[in-house]
Amino acid sequence: MKRSDLRGAAAGLLVEVLVVAVLVTAGIAFTHLIFLVH
Amino acid sequence: MLLKPNTEDFRSIGFALGRVMMVAGASGVLPVGWAIARREWVPLGSLLLMIGVAAMIGALSELLRPKKTRLSWSQGMVVVALTWLLIPGLGALPLWMSGHFGRYLDAYFEAMSGLTTTGLSLTQDLDHLAESLNVWRHTLHFLGGQGIVLAALTFFAGPGILSLLHGEGREDQIFPSVRSTARFIWMVSLVHAVAGISILTLEGIFNLGLGGVRSLLHAMNIFMAAFDTGGFTTMSTSIAYYGSAVFEVTAMVLMVAGTMSFGLHHALWRREKGLLRNLEVRTILTTFGVTLGVALIGLKVQGAYPDAISLVRRGFFQVISAHSGTGFASISTPELGRWSGLAFLGITVAMAMGGMASSTAGGVKSLRVGLTFGAMLDTVKEALLPEHSVITTSFHQSRRQRLTPELAQSVMAVSLLFVALYLVGAAVGYAYGYPLTDALFESVSATAAVGLSVGVTHPGMEIPLEAVMIGQMWLGRLEFVAAFSLLGFFISWVRGE
């Protein structure tokens, strides 16, 4: 495996972690909103 | 006029099947190694028997060696369809011999569920199943998810076997050659395996006190099930067994990785820009957001959890598990069965939608959902605009493409077949006395290769219902095309000239 492959892999993994982080944050914010409204 | 298959057709198909069976047998090396390391001699015997049977079939297929080993498209389709029927038969052998299955059909169901990356289980007393056999269940996920046919290509590659890839619903030809595509898929998997297994093992050792070997066992199994969107787990209580946020978050990242198409993995790998413009990415983000929102509102209205954090932790995990087609549960089966109204709707629709094309996820798939929606919009536009207006719709998927009527028709046909299969399974479950909602939930779960259960799937379930669910898993994984090719092959054999 070349160094550029590893960098690509790390970038891919980072994006996946970021996607989960953004979605979880949005989920938490939305749930708090529901609790406020309902 | 139908052309009757000739002897050479049968030789080509038999030879290719023999090769694939040998790969399946060879994959038993991982559980065999575990059995030796953990001194599980009885399971070792059954695993070796399975490998021996696979080797014998492989050796016998040499007798069928055709004049040219290159498969035609239709032969490739038949091989794929039969592969997904025969390997569960082989993989079920050690499971059945373990005594944890009431009948051979249950073990076959389990192996089919493993190979199709579904995750529904009929194992009795799973918590006391030998470790090596548990590794074998999860290895079946890995085999199925990574494409057993692709594995065969890696070892016995010939350019003519390209058609096999198409039959598995892997439509993206990421690289020009099969070998480099296979290499890329293995490379992506390896990187995720190292990262995922390391984190889970460390969490198991230092936080959960599982010990080194058990932590590695659990980490390996969870990686194979999450990255291949399978859903089997080492313990009967699924992910809830760990009660660990680290396990849940790691599993979520792996599930997201598993539901992404390998085309998208490749684009991320090359750090391409503008991926959010892809119809498939937009569709999956939209459907995930909507189904999650609906489920969370439903859970709040239902009063299922007392506070926001408990609700979002369980609701979010279940919806991502459902939408990615994995089927891990962070709550118990009875608790999931109590989800009703909007929560039930949200999670069921999430399961039905599925992940991206060219991934290990099942279901209708996001690209089809997006294109179906586009085609429906076209129909509405046609009705509203003046009679002679010309409507052309395009979408972005790697590049700008036109949504032609032919494309719309083929996409809608497969989507409709999925919906029909969801309904047929639900009708059969209902006929056996299960509540309609439970029957529908389990039917969608089986067809879309998810694996979440509200209790319809259980040891001792009715044999016809079990057989229908096996058929659903098989048809859903092959996305109908290869199964229809197999049917066409048999019709040509019987009625052809």
Count of helix runs of chain B: 21
Shape label of chain A: rod-shaped
What does the largest sheet of chain A look like? none
Task: Report the oligomer.
Answer: heterodimer
Strand content of chain B: under 5%
Distance between the termini of chain A: 53 Å
What's the N-to-C terminus distance of chain B? 7 Å
- Which residues of chain B form runs of ≥5 with pLDDT under 50? 151-167
Order of helices and strands of chain A: H
Structural class of chain B: mainly alpha
Q: In which range does the helix fraction of chain A lie?
A: over 70%
Question: How does the major sheet of chain B shape up?
Answer: 2 strands, antiparallel
Annotation, overall tally of beta strands of chain B: 2
Discrete helix count of chain A: 1
- Structural class, judged by helices and strands of chain A? mainly alpha
Order of helices and strands of chain B: HHHHHHHHHHHHHHHHHEEHHHH
Strand content of chain A: under 5%
What is the tally of beta strands of chain A? Answer: 0
pLDDT averaged residue by residue of chain B: 89
- The value of Rg of chain B in angstroms is 22 Å
* Strand line-up across the major sheet of chain B: 1-2
Task: Annotate the secondary structure layout.
The complex is a heterodimer of chains A (38) and B (497).
Chain A: H1 3-37
Chain B: H1 7-26, H2 29-37, H3 41-61, H4 73-97, H5 104-115, H6 131-146, H7 148-156, H8 162-167, H9 178-206, H10 212-227, H11 245-259, H12 262-269, H13 279-302, H14 308-323, H15 333-337, H16 341-353, H17 366-384, E1 394-397, E2 399-402, H18 405-431, H19 436-447, H20 463-478, H21 481-495
Antiparallel strand pairs in B: 1-2
Helix pairs in contact in B: 1-3, 1-4, 1-7, 2-3, 2-6, 3-4, 4-5, 4-21, 5-6, 5-20, 6-7, 6-10, 7-9, 9-10, 9-11, 10-11, 13-14, 13-16, 13-17, 14-16, 16-19, 17-18, 18-19, 18-20
